[in-house]
Design goal:
Helix content: 25-40%
CATH class: Alpha Beta
Radius of gyration: 14 Å
CATH topology: Rossmann fold
Order of helices and strands: EHEHH
Largest sheet: 2 strands, parallel
Length: about 100
């Protein structure tokens, strides 16, 4: 296993226009990717940001330092399917909210 240092942020669009199964596919992808990574404070750190026109409760890089903790939080993350996907100009604000 290769141990790489990286910060990985998952931006998950949960706009109301997405079908429930599409959102589920995105969540499954996030779970599978986290399972494949060596999550640890000194290796791979994970941040998670579900969004549409609002930023929902998520977690940043320093909140969960182990793979089990990240997976548990992902499993408990509320599904907030509402609103519409913001325009690209708003993505900088979304990223800033989780990185700071």
């Amino acid at each position: 296993m290769c141990r790489v240092k990286a910060d990985v942020i998952f931006l998950v669009d949960c706009a109301v226009g997405l079908a429930d199964d599409n959102f589920g596919i995105k969540q499954d992808l996030v779970f599978n990717m986290v399972h494949a990574l060596h999550v640890a404070e000194t290796n791979v750190r994970i941040a998670y940001l579900p969004y549409n026109t609002e930023v929902f409760e998520a977690f940043g890089f320093s909140h969960h330092r182990t793979k089990p903790a990240v997976l548990e939080q992902l499993g408990e993350a509320p599904v907030q399917q509402s609103g519409q996907t913001p325009k690209m100009s708003r993505h900088g604000c979304l990223l800033n909210s989780i990185l700071t």
